[in-house]
Specification:
With 256 residues, the chain is an alpha/beta fold. 47% of the residues lie in helices and 11% in strands.
Length: 256
């Protein structure tokens, strides 16, 4: 999908991009091979060719951060197939909705099939989170662009998020899926252990306070709950990407 993307070019929006696809300009190579294109002046075409050559160079060097800057956040989903193998799935638990009043208690990180759980007062630190982000090419969360990342950056001053961010909450809305993560999981038959079905953010707060009062079992349940939220982002991302391709991608990328 990335090499079929043209909306990062100045002056090209989704309607022009779709017209290019319909005219057989399926990717960057096809665009650059054409000497002339309808509705695009020769001088503008030359600028676009240079921009696409630069994009191809950054892609060849696997520089995902370049695309974080030139693509609008709503289009970061287009990077999933290209950079998904080095994606970092992230989900946090807190003691409140406001980052100014609450505390980050758990940070779940899932990458390359490995689950890491950072716990406040033990393993949770800015340096560990930053290292995980720096080793990834794509960040994937559910509502994280509004909640998780601003919350973390409030509590860990200077935390840098320079990689593209595929926020599944807003991707779900774009393909007609409403509600929170658990509701969407049920709609898409993404499973989690039965004893975690009734847990939510408020219950996570209660479990944290139980743990702080000396209940080790409460922490174990909280960690399992967060791990389910974090790991389930991977199959959800796969499903949403396929639906986004169907709705917003070129016909050439649709399954036969």
């Amino acid at each position: 999908m990335l090499t079929s993307t043209f909306v990062h070019l100045k002056g090209i929006g989704s309607s022009t991009e779709r017209r290019l696809w319909e005219e057989g300009i399926a990717d960057w190579t096809a665009f650059r091979e054409q000497s002339r294109l309808t509705g695009i002046s020769p001088s503008r075409k030359a600028l676009y060719d240079a921009d696409l050559a630069a994009a191809q160079d950054h892609l060849d060097r696997r520089n995902a951060r370049y695309f974080a800057g030139c693509l609008h956040a709503r289009d970061h989903w287009r990077l999933f197939r290209t950079f998904g193998a080095r994606a970092l799935y992230l989900d946090i638990e807190t003691t409140g909705l406001s980052a100014h009043d609450g505390q980050v208690t758990i940070v779940g990180l899932y990458r390359n099939g490995r689950m890491s759980t950072l716990i406040w007062g033990d393993s949770l630190s800015k340096d560990v989170i930053q290292e995980e982000l720096d080793q990834a090419d794509l960040l994937i969360t559910f509502f994280g662009s509004v909640f998780d990342i601003p919350y973390l950056q409030t509590h860990f001053r200077g935390l840098q998020v320079s990689i593209p961010h595929f926020d599944l909450c807003f991707a779900a809305r774009r393909v007609g899926l409403q509600g929170g993560l658990k509701h969407i999981e049920r709609e898409l038959d993404i499973a989690r252990e039965s004893d975690l079905h009734q847990l939510d953010g408020m219950e996570a707060v209660r479990l944290w306070h139980q743990y702080r009062a000396g209940d080790a079992a409460a922490l174990n349940l909280l960690v399992r709950y967060n791990a389910a939220d974090t790991r389930n982002l991977e199959p959800l991302a796969e499903c949403l990407f396929d639906r986004l391709i169907t709705r917003y991608g070129p016909q050439s990328l649709l399954p036969l």
